[in-house]
From TrEMBL:
Signal peptide location: 1-20
Protein name: Secreted protein
Keyword Signal annotated: yes
Keywords, alphabetical: Signal
Amino acid sequence: MLLKRVLLLIALLSALQSIGQDNERSLSFWNTLKSHCGKAYSGILEIPKEDEAFGGKTLVMHVKSCSENTIRIPFYVGEDKSRTWILTMADGIISLKHDHRHEDGTMDDVNFYGGTATNEGKADVQFFPADVHTQTLIPDAATNVWWITIDETSFTYNLRRLGTDRVFKVVMDLTKPIETPDEPWGWKD
């Protein structure tokens, strides 16, 4: 009986230690991203190069707003300032939402879709499978998985729609900050 209790206690302590380590990984990712707050970067569409909406256009991300639990990153595609990636942190888990606005600042009908990581991820990558809101709002996106990577030189925003050929990848160069862009559509400080 005593041996079972000791083994159970060891297993519990091991699980708690693992949770703490995982939380450190998501916090490391979070803090690396926050270290870019206030800076803007340019990038390229890596996949698919022939995409009509993004291909050949100037791509800019601006890590515009950072608080303890929220990071807002407007993403510009040429003159289109409608997109903002919103990352939130709760209990060591990160969520990604997409805020889409019209030029007059009003919300798009397709808005705040995205997902929440199913675990604490890693220090350099976080995955976000489509959540219920996304599945309801955009039924074809029910199998979407977004992921973001970050290291010393690049930030990537990625999408894969499982069961289809849909793949999307933007690579932003973190080695060369650029001039801060104009306000995104609908932005209110």
